[in-house]
Inverse folding.
């Protein structure tokens, strides 16, 4: 596991695309600050915050799905996976090592970009609260974790890089772009009394939506979700909600990585 972790870490950080993404994230976050320069302080749930959350929701899952899926299929297509299969290495250790190495590398890239943006905001005298920065950062890290694991799952089922790319885009389109429309269409066939239960189940199925609701509530914008979310908003305002979210993340990631390991193990046996 340690070997796979270090190899993934070094491979990711040595690529020129890593530094390209440092520039990209720095530019995106700094631009959002610049567009809202006239605000006295970044506090609470504002239009700027909603824009930043939506932008992160569009970009981060797509990139992580592609990176995660290609990290597996690149080795399958190049024959490196066949070579690794001859070594006495557990498939599950390999998957966990790939995930942790890639996750640490992506967190390092995003953290560097986020830090540069914070420095720029300080130099330009933008008033940004510490709580605001921490919540945005945590939101991004949770997104990275979920969709990187999902990308590895998609890569374990794909046989070519083209299949991995197409499945990543399809998953992103369904979970990010079309999810709200799908839920609205589904609710047309559900009795009004069951709507809160259906909404809760769909939130558990889509981590991006769950994170969006959770962090918007943390910023004090829970009222935007309406009466159907009142119970959930009240729970998210409780101190126990963050440990529950961490537990949900752990279970979700373990499930995705376990399925990925199972699929790769089946591929090794064939």
């Amino acid at each position: 596991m340690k070997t796979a972790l270090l190899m993934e870490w070094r491979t990711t950080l040595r690529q020129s695309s890593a530094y390209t993404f440092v520039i990209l994230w720095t530019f995106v976050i700094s631009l959002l600050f610049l567009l809202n320069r006239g605000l006295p302080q970044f506090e609470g749930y504002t239009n700027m915050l909603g824009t930043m959350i939506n932008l992160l929701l569009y970009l981060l899952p797509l990139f992580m799905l592609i990176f995660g899926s290609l990290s597996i299929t690149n080795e399958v297509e190049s024959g490196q996976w066949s070579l690794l299969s001859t070594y006495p290495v557990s498939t599950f250790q390999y998957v966990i090592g790939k995930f942790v190495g890639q996750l640490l590398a992506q967190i390092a890239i995003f953290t560097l970009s986020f830090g540069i943006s914070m420095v720029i905001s300080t130099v330009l005298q933008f008033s940004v609260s510490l709580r605001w920065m921490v919540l945005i950062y945590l939101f991004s890290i949770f997104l990275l974790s979920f969709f990187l694991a999902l990308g590895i799952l998609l890569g374990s089922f794909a046989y070519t890089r083209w299949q991995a790319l197409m499945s990543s885009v399809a998953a992103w389109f369904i979970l990010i772009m079309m999810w709200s429309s799908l839920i609205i269409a589904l609710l047309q066939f559900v009795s009004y009394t069951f709507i809160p239960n259906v909404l809760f189940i769909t939130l558990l199925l889509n981590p991006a939506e769950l994170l969006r609701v959770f962090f918007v509530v943390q910023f004090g914008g829970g009222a935007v979700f309406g009466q159907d979310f009142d119970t959930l908003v009240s729970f998210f305002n409780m101190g126990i909600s963050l440990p529950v979210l961490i537990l949900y993340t752990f279970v979700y990631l373990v499930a995705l990585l376990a399925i990925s390991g199972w699929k790769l193990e089946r591929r090794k046996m064939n």
